[in-house]
Specification:
Layout lengths: L1 E4 L5 H13 L3 E6 L4 E6 L7 H5 L4 E5 L19 E3 L2 E3 L5 E5 L6 H13 L4 E3 L17 H14 L2 E5 L3 H10 L2 E4 L7 H10 L3 E4 L6 H12 L6 E5 L17 H8 L4 E3 L1 H5 L5 H10 L4 E5 L17 H9 L2 H7 L6
Helix pairs in contact: 3-4, 4-5, 6-7, 10-12
Bound molecules: phosphoenolpyruvate (PEP) and manganese (II) ion (MN).
Length: about 350
Protein backbone atom coordinates (compact mmCIF):
# COMPACT_ATOMS: atom_id res chain seq x y z
CA UNK A 1 0.00 0.00 0.00
CA UNK A 2 1.15 3.55 -0.63
CA UNK A 3 0.04 6.73 1.08
CA UNK A 4 -0.01 9.76 -1.18
CA UNK A 5 0.45 12.93 0.83
CA UNK A 6 -1.15 16.23 -0.15
CA UNK A 7 1.13 18.66 -2.03
CA UNK A 8 1.07 21.01 1.01
CA UNK A 9 1.80 18.28 3.60
CA UNK A 10 4.50 19.41 6.04
CA UNK A 11 7.50 17.35 7.06
CA UNK A 12 5.97 16.84 10.50
CA UNK A 13 2.77 15.53 8.85
CA UNK A 14 4.93 13.04 6.94
CA UNK A 15 6.93 12.12 10.02
CA UNK A 16 3.79 11.41 12.05
CA UNK A 17 2.42 9.04 9.44
CA UNK A 18 5.81 7.32 9.04
CA UNK A 19 6.15 6.88 12.81
CA UNK A 20 2.67 5.42 13.07
CA UNK A 21 3.62 2.81 10.45
CA UNK A 22 6.94 1.85 12.04
CA UNK A 23 5.34 1.75 15.50
CA UNK A 24 3.06 -0.93 14.08
CA UNK A 25 6.07 -3.05 13.08
CA UNK A 26 6.09 -2.22 9.36
CA UNK A 27 8.75 -0.62 7.18
CA UNK A 28 8.48 2.76 5.51
CA UNK A 29 9.83 3.70 2.09
CA UNK A 30 9.75 7.44 1.44
CA UNK A 31 9.74 8.86 -2.07
CA UNK A 32 9.91 12.65 -2.18
CA UNK A 33 8.89 13.88 -5.63
CA UNK A 34 8.78 17.44 -6.91
CA UNK A 35 5.02 17.64 -6.26
CA UNK A 36 4.12 15.10 -3.61
CA UNK A 37 5.64 12.69 -1.14
CA UNK A 38 4.68 9.05 -1.32
CA UNK A 39 4.98 6.84 1.72
CA UNK A 40 5.32 3.17 0.77
CA UNK A 41 4.58 0.46 3.32
CA UNK A 42 6.42 -2.87 3.32
CA UNK A 43 5.34 -5.71 5.57
CA UNK A 44 2.18 -7.39 6.88
CA UNK A 45 -0.54 -4.80 6.24
CA UNK A 46 -3.10 -6.70 8.30
CA UNK A 47 -1.43 -4.99 11.29
CA UNK A 48 -2.60 -1.57 10.08
CA UNK A 49 -5.94 0.16 9.87
CA UNK A 50 -6.21 2.22 6.69
CA UNK A 51 -9.07 4.11 8.26
CA UNK A 52 -6.75 5.34 11.00
CA UNK A 53 -4.13 6.47 8.49
CA UNK A 54 -6.64 8.37 6.36
CA UNK A 55 -7.45 10.70 9.26
CA UNK A 56 -3.82 11.82 9.71
CA UNK A 57 -3.28 15.42 8.68
CA UNK A 58 -1.67 15.83 5.23
CA UNK A 59 -2.84 12.46 3.87
CA UNK A 60 -4.44 12.74 0.43
CA UNK A 61 -5.27 9.11 -0.39
CA UNK A 62 -4.30 5.49 0.18
CA UNK A 63 -3.67 3.24 -2.81
CA UNK A 64 -3.25 -0.55 -2.51
CA UNK A 65 -0.20 -2.06 -4.27
CA UNK A 66 -1.30 -5.51 -5.33
CA UNK A 67 2.03 -6.58 -6.90
CA UNK A 68 4.30 -8.66 -4.66
CA UNK A 69 7.32 -6.48 -5.46
CA UNK A 70 7.16 -3.16 -3.65
CA UNK A 71 10.56 -1.43 -3.49
CA UNK A 72 11.17 -1.97 -7.21
CA UNK A 73 7.59 -0.88 -7.99
CA UNK A 74 7.04 2.39 -9.82
CA UNK A 75 4.04 3.11 -7.57
CA UNK A 76 6.41 3.28 -4.59
CA UNK A 77 8.90 5.45 -6.43
CA UNK A 78 7.40 7.31 -9.42
CA UNK A 79 10.63 9.09 -10.46
CA UNK A 80 13.03 6.99 -12.58
CA UNK A 81 16.13 5.90 -10.69
CA UNK A 82 19.66 6.67 -11.80
CA UNK A 83 22.37 4.28 -10.61
CA UNK A 84 25.88 5.63 -10.23
CA UNK A 85 28.70 3.29 -11.27
CA UNK A 86 32.27 4.62 -11.02
CA UNK A 87 32.28 7.95 -12.89
CA UNK A 88 29.18 7.16 -14.93
CA UNK A 89 25.44 6.97 -14.26
CA UNK A 90 22.89 4.56 -15.67
CA UNK A 91 19.48 6.16 -16.04
CA UNK A 92 17.47 9.02 -17.51
CA UNK A 93 19.15 11.31 -20.01
CA UNK A 94 22.12 9.01 -20.60
CA UNK A 95 22.92 6.12 -22.89
CA UNK A 96 25.32 3.74 -21.16
CA UNK A 97 27.29 1.39 -23.35
CA UNK A 98 28.89 -1.58 -21.60
CA UNK A 99 31.17 -3.40 -23.99
CA UNK A 100 33.95 -5.95 -23.85
CA UNK A 101 34.72 -9.61 -24.26
CA UNK A 102 32.46 -12.41 -23.09
CA UNK A 103 35.41 -13.75 -21.07
CA UNK A 104 38.60 -12.08 -19.88
CA UNK A 105 41.28 -14.14 -21.64
CA UNK A 106 44.51 -12.30 -20.77
CA UNK A 107 45.73 -8.94 -19.49
CA UNK A 108 46.92 -7.85 -22.96
CA UNK A 109 43.71 -8.90 -24.68
CA UNK A 110 41.55 -7.04 -22.18
CA UNK A 111 43.65 -3.88 -22.31
CA UNK A 112 43.45 -3.86 -26.13
CA UNK A 113 39.66 -4.30 -26.09
CA UNK A 114 39.17 -1.74 -23.31
CA UNK A 115 41.01 0.94 -25.29
CA UNK A 116 39.08 0.14 -28.48
CA UNK A 117 35.62 0.19 -26.88
CA UNK A 118 36.43 3.40 -25.03
CA UNK A 119 37.48 5.06 -28.31
CA UNK A 120 34.12 4.02 -29.80
CA UNK A 121 32.05 5.55 -26.99
CA UNK A 122 31.65 2.85 -24.32
CA UNK A 123 31.62 4.10 -20.72
CA UNK A 124 31.76 0.68 -19.09
CA UNK A 125 33.95 -2.37 -19.63
CA UNK A 126 32.35 -5.80 -19.37
CA UNK A 127 34.32 -9.01 -19.05
CA UNK A 128 33.60 -12.37 -17.46
CA UNK A 129 36.05 -13.80 -14.95
CA UNK A 130 33.68 -16.58 -13.80
CA UNK A 131 31.95 -18.14 -16.79
CA UNK A 132 28.80 -20.23 -16.21
CA UNK A 133 29.21 -22.35 -19.37
CA UNK A 134 26.72 -24.90 -20.64
CA UNK A 135 29.48 -27.52 -20.89
CA UNK A 136 31.89 -28.18 -17.99
CA UNK A 137 34.63 -28.68 -20.61
CA UNK A 138 34.33 -25.13 -21.99
CA UNK A 139 36.59 -22.31 -20.73
CA UNK A 140 35.47 -21.47 -17.20
CA UNK A 141 37.21 -18.10 -16.76
CA UNK A 142 40.40 -16.74 -15.14
CA UNK A 143 38.60 -16.04 -11.85
CA UNK A 144 40.58 -13.75 -9.53
CA UNK A 145 43.28 -13.00 -12.14
CA UNK A 146 40.53 -11.97 -14.53
CA UNK A 147 39.15 -9.56 -11.91
CA UNK A 148 42.59 -8.02 -11.44
CA UNK A 149 42.92 -7.48 -15.20
CA UNK A 150 39.49 -5.83 -15.18
CA UNK A 151 40.66 -3.43 -12.50
CA UNK A 152 43.85 -2.61 -14.41
CA UNK A 153 41.98 -2.02 -17.68
CA UNK A 154 39.40 0.13 -15.86
CA UNK A 155 42.11 2.25 -14.27
CA UNK A 156 44.05 2.62 -17.52
CA UNK A 157 41.01 3.77 -19.52
CA UNK A 158 38.70 5.40 -16.96
CA UNK A 159 35.96 2.91 -17.87
CA UNK A 160 33.72 1.64 -15.06
CA UNK A 161 33.89 -2.15 -14.83
CA UNK A 162 31.32 -4.93 -14.51
CA UNK A 163 31.85 -8.63 -13.91
CA UNK A 164 29.49 -11.54 -13.35
CA UNK A 165 29.48 -13.22 -9.95
CA UNK A 166 28.33 -16.81 -9.52
CA UNK A 167 29.00 -17.56 -5.85
CA UNK A 168 29.66 -16.04 -2.46
CA UNK A 169 33.43 -16.37 -3.02
CA UNK A 170 33.15 -14.62 -6.38
CA UNK A 171 31.25 -11.75 -4.73
CA UNK A 172 33.89 -11.41 -2.01
CA UNK A 173 36.61 -11.20 -4.66
CA UNK A 174 34.72 -8.99 -7.14
CA UNK A 175 33.89 -6.25 -4.61
CA UNK A 176 37.63 -5.59 -4.32
CA UNK A 177 38.26 -5.17 -8.05
CA UNK A 178 35.20 -4.06 -10.05
CA UNK A 179 32.57 -1.29 -9.90
CA UNK A 180 29.43 -3.30 -10.62
CA UNK A 181 28.35 -6.90 -10.01
CA UNK A 182 26.43 -8.83 -12.65
CA UNK A 183 23.98 -11.59 -11.78
CA UNK A 184 23.58 -13.73 -14.88
CA UNK A 185 20.47 -15.22 -16.42
CA UNK A 186 21.16 -18.63 -14.92
CA UNK A 187 21.30 -17.21 -11.41
CA UNK A 188 18.40 -14.77 -11.58
CA UNK A 189 16.44 -16.86 -9.11
CA UNK A 190 19.40 -17.89 -6.95
CA UNK A 191 17.86 -16.05 -4.02
CA UNK A 192 20.81 -16.67 -1.70
CA UNK A 193 23.16 -15.06 -4.25
CA UNK A 194 20.76 -12.13 -4.74
CA UNK A 195 20.73 -11.46 -0.99
CA UNK A 196 24.52 -11.61 -0.81
CA UNK A 197 24.83 -9.18 -3.75
CA UNK A 198 22.32 -6.95 -1.97
CA UNK A 199 24.39 -6.91 1.22
CA UNK A 200 27.45 -5.51 -0.61
CA UNK A 201 25.61 -2.24 -1.39
CA UNK A 202 27.35 -2.23 -4.78
CA UNK A 203 25.53 -1.55 -8.07
CA UNK A 204 24.08 -4.80 -9.41
CA UNK A 205 23.08 -5.60 -13.00
CA UNK A 206 20.37 -8.25 -12.84
CA UNK A 207 19.91 -10.16 -16.08
CA UNK A 208 16.55 -11.67 -16.92
CA UNK A 209 16.36 -15.43 -16.39
CA UNK A 210 16.09 -17.59 -19.50
CA UNK A 211 12.47 -18.47 -18.75
CA UNK A 212 11.55 -15.72 -16.30
CA UNK A 213 8.41 -13.63 -16.47
CA UNK A 214 8.73 -9.90 -15.88
CA UNK A 215 7.03 -10.34 -12.51
CA UNK A 216 9.53 -13.01 -11.42
CA UNK A 217 12.36 -10.76 -12.57
CA UNK A 218 11.07 -7.79 -10.56
CA UNK A 219 10.70 -10.03 -7.52
CA UNK A 220 14.34 -11.06 -7.98
CA UNK A 221 15.30 -7.35 -8.02
CA UNK A 222 13.23 -6.94 -4.86
CA UNK A 223 15.47 -9.47 -3.06
CA UNK A 224 18.49 -7.24 -3.70
CA UNK A 225 16.76 -3.98 -2.77
CA UNK A 226 15.22 -5.55 0.36
CA UNK A 227 18.79 -5.96 1.68
CA UNK A 228 19.07 -2.16 1.69
CA UNK A 229 20.72 -1.89 -1.73
CA UNK A 230 18.71 0.30 -4.14
CA UNK A 231 21.40 0.23 -6.87
CA UNK A 232 19.80 -2.29 -9.16
CA UNK A 233 19.75 -2.19 -12.98
CA UNK A 234 17.77 -4.69 -15.08
CA UNK A 235 19.12 -6.30 -18.25
CA UNK A 236 16.89 -7.88 -20.91
CA UNK A 237 19.00 -10.55 -22.62
CA UNK A 238 16.44 -12.64 -24.45
CA UNK A 239 14.21 -15.48 -23.35
CA UNK A 240 13.68 -19.07 -24.46
CA UNK A 241 10.93 -19.52 -27.02
CA UNK A 242 10.19 -22.12 -29.74
CA UNK A 243 12.21 -20.02 -32.22
CA UNK A 244 15.64 -21.44 -33.05
CA UNK A 245 16.83 -18.92 -35.69
CA UNK A 246 18.31 -16.81 -32.93
CA UNK A 247 19.99 -18.02 -29.72
CA UNK A 248 17.16 -16.53 -27.63
CA UNK A 249 14.25 -14.24 -28.44
CA UNK A 250 14.92 -10.62 -27.53
CA UNK A 251 11.82 -9.39 -25.73
CA UNK A 252 12.05 -5.69 -26.55
CA UNK A 253 8.48 -5.16 -25.39
CA UNK A 254 9.86 -5.80 -21.90
CA UNK A 255 11.37 -2.29 -22.07
CA UNK A 256 8.07 -0.31 -22.19
CA UNK A 257 6.40 -2.84 -19.88
CA UNK A 258 9.16 -2.40 -17.31
CA UNK A 259 8.96 1.39 -17.67
CA UNK A 260 5.38 1.19 -16.40
CA UNK A 261 6.06 -1.28 -13.64
CA UNK A 262 9.39 -0.16 -12.21
CA UNK A 263 11.61 2.87 -11.64
CA UNK A 264 14.82 0.84 -12.16
CA UNK A 265 17.08 1.51 -15.19
CA UNK A 266 16.91 -0.96 -18.09
CA UNK A 267 19.78 -2.24 -20.23
CA UNK A 268 19.37 -4.39 -23.36
CA UNK A 269 21.87 -7.07 -24.38
CA UNK A 270 21.59 -7.71 -28.14
CA UNK A 271 24.54 -10.16 -28.06
CA UNK A 272 23.25 -13.00 -25.85
CA UNK A 273 19.71 -12.53 -27.13
CA UNK A 274 20.49 -12.96 -30.84
CA UNK A 275 23.65 -15.10 -30.62
CA UNK A 276 24.94 -13.68 -33.91
CA UNK A 277 27.05 -10.59 -34.66
CA UNK A 278 24.91 -10.11 -37.79
CA UNK A 279 21.79 -9.21 -35.78
CA UNK A 280 23.44 -7.21 -33.00
CA UNK A 281 23.46 -3.75 -34.73
CA UNK A 282 19.77 -3.83 -35.69
CA UNK A 283 18.62 -4.91 -32.24
CA UNK A 284 20.95 -2.44 -30.52
CA UNK A 285 19.42 0.45 -32.51
CA UNK A 286 15.91 -0.84 -31.83
CA UNK A 287 16.69 -1.00 -28.11
CA UNK A 288 17.83 2.64 -28.06
CA UNK A 289 14.74 3.66 -30.05
CA UNK A 290 12.45 2.06 -27.47
CA UNK A 291 14.19 4.05 -24.73
CA UNK A 292 16.47 1.53 -23.04
CA UNK A 293 18.95 3.21 -20.69
CA UNK A 294 21.85 1.40 -22.28
CA UNK A 295 23.33 -1.56 -24.09
CA UNK A 296 25.58 -4.45 -23.15
CA UNK A 297 27.53 -5.63 -26.19
CA UNK A 298 30.20 -8.31 -26.58
CA UNK A 299 33.27 -7.05 -28.44
CA UNK A 300 36.40 -9.07 -29.22
CA UNK A 301 39.69 -8.25 -30.97
CA UNK A 302 39.45 -11.52 -32.91
CA UNK A 303 35.99 -13.10 -32.58
CA UNK A 304 37.00 -16.21 -34.56
CA UNK A 305 39.48 -17.11 -31.81
CA UNK A 306 37.39 -16.04 -28.78
CA UNK A 307 37.32 -18.55 -25.92
CA UNK A 308 33.64 -17.82 -25.38
CA UNK A 309 30.74 -16.47 -27.49
CA UNK A 310 32.83 -15.58 -30.56
CA UNK A 311 29.90 -15.89 -33.03
CA UNK A 312 27.96 -13.10 -31.32
CA UNK A 313 30.94 -10.79 -30.69
CA UNK A 314 31.52 -7.68 -32.78
CA UNK A 315 35.04 -6.89 -33.91
CA UNK A 316 36.37 -3.35 -33.32
CA UNK A 317 35.36 -2.09 -36.74
CA UNK A 318 31.77 -3.35 -36.48
CA UNK A 319 31.40 -1.99 -32.96
CA UNK A 320 32.69 1.40 -34.04
CA UNK A 321 30.30 1.47 -37.00
CA UNK A 322 27.40 0.65 -34.71
CA UNK A 323 28.17 3.38 -32.17
CA UNK A 324 28.51 5.88 -35.05
CA UNK A 325 24.92 5.09 -35.99
CA UNK A 326 23.37 5.60 -32.55
CA UNK A 327 23.14 9.41 -32.42
CA UNK A 328 19.79 9.84 -34.25
CA UNK A 329 18.18 7.11 -32.12
CA UNK A 330 19.43 8.83 -28.96
CA UNK A 331 18.04 12.12 -30.17
CA UNK A 332 14.54 10.67 -30.66
CA UNK A 333 14.38 9.58 -27.02
CA UNK A 334 16.23 12.59 -25.60
CA UNK A 335 19.41 10.89 -24.45
CA UNK A 336 22.90 12.21 -24.75
CA UNK A 337 25.63 9.99 -26.13
CA UNK A 338 29.13 11.23 -26.72
CA UNK A 339 31.28 9.29 -29.08
C1 LIG B 1 27.31 -12.78 -19.93
O1 LIG B 1 26.89 -11.63 -19.97
O2 LIG B 1 28.51 -13.05 -20.04
C2 LIG B 1 26.37 -13.91 -19.80
C3 LIG B 1 26.76 -15.13 -19.50
O3 LIG B 1 25.09 -13.55 -20.05
P1 LIG B 1 23.71 -14.27 -19.64
O4 LIG B 1 23.75 -14.48 -18.16
O5 LIG B 1 22.69 -13.28 -20.10
O6 LIG B 1 23.66 -15.57 -20.42
MN1 LIG C 1 28.87 -14.22 -23.41
Amino acid sequence: MIIIMKPDATSSNIERVANYITDNGLQVHLSKGTEVTIIGIVGDKSRLSTENISIFEGVDRIVPVTESYKLSNRKFHPEPTSVKVGCTSIGPGNLTIMAGPCAVESNDQLMLIAKAVKASGATMLRGGAYKPRTSPYSFQGLEQDGLKYMQEAGEATGLATICEVVSQEAIEAAVKYVDMLQIGARNMQNFYLLKEAGKTGMPVLLKRGLCATIEEWLNAAEYIIAEGNPNVVLCERGIRTYETATRNTLDLSAVPVLREKTHLPIIVDPSHSTGSYRYVPAMAKAAVACDADGLMIEVHNNPACALSDGPQSLNFEKFDRLTSQLAPFCQIVGRSFQK
